[in-house]
Amino acid sequence: MEASPTSAGQAPVPAASEPRPRRTGYRRLPVQQRREQLIAVALELFASRPPEEVSLDDVAEAAEASRPLVYRYFAGGKQQLYEAALRTAADELTSRFAVPVRGTPSEQLSAVLDGYFAFVAEHDAGYSALLRGGSVVETARTSAIVDDVRRAALRRTLRHLGVREAGPRLTLLVRSWIAVVEGASLSWLDEGRALPVTELRDWLVDQFTAMAAATALHDPQTAEVLAGVLALEGPRPQRAAERLRAVLGGAS
48: closest CA among 118, 130, 123, 128? Predict the structure, then answer.
């Protein structure tokens, strides 16, 4: 809009009715919808870059919102937003631990690992920064969120094995295998995903069977669980299960 007319020699004065410029693309959203949008945007940023490299300004710009608006929803600033995003990601990852009803035990475990690695692929940088630790935004609360995911994985695995109350050796077995899965995931990302994910998945299934066999030598509960799992593999069990059935059968 043009300036208001003035007398000669006077500086032009903007018209009083001239509207103030507005942020392009800004939309008013209901409170819960806006909060969910900010968390979703933060998740995308944290997934593509380590958390310490993401600022509130980055989140505001990606959400087409203002920095004060982000603070309105997350008064604790970046730390509170990161924890909310991490909790959302943790809930999503935990939901992928669901075991399909059909299939042999090894096929069911393979399906769970497929969902796990799909999540890892979607949250590349954020997953790496989270599991390695050392982030400037890491706190006792964020560590507790990660531990909650590991405990959920432990519970789901034991349930998958048909175990109601695990002894210390069986618990150690499952926790150790979960650590192997995490380490394999980080290595897979570090190596540029060079190994086909299906090959990595099958290796981890075999790893669990082999680790269970080693634990069974020292723990009757694990031996009983492993025997039950191998029995459910059917007449044509997968690679490691078939070899271990022969070994265990010869030792009985």
Answer: 123
Buried b (16+ CB within 10 A) or exposed e, 6-43: eeeeeeeeeeeeeeeeeeeeeeeeeeeebbebbbebbb
d(CA 64, CA 11): 36
State percent of the chain over pLDDT 70.
77
Q: CB count, 10 Å around CB of 61?
A: 15
**Count of all residues that appear for the chain in the document:** 252
pLDDT score for 85 = 86
Tokens of 71: 């603070």
Helix 105-122 vs helix 124-132: angle between axes, to the nearest 10 degrees?
100
Each residue's pLDDT tens digit, 51-108:
788 899 999 999 999 999 999 999 999 889 988 888 888 888 888 888 888 899 989 9
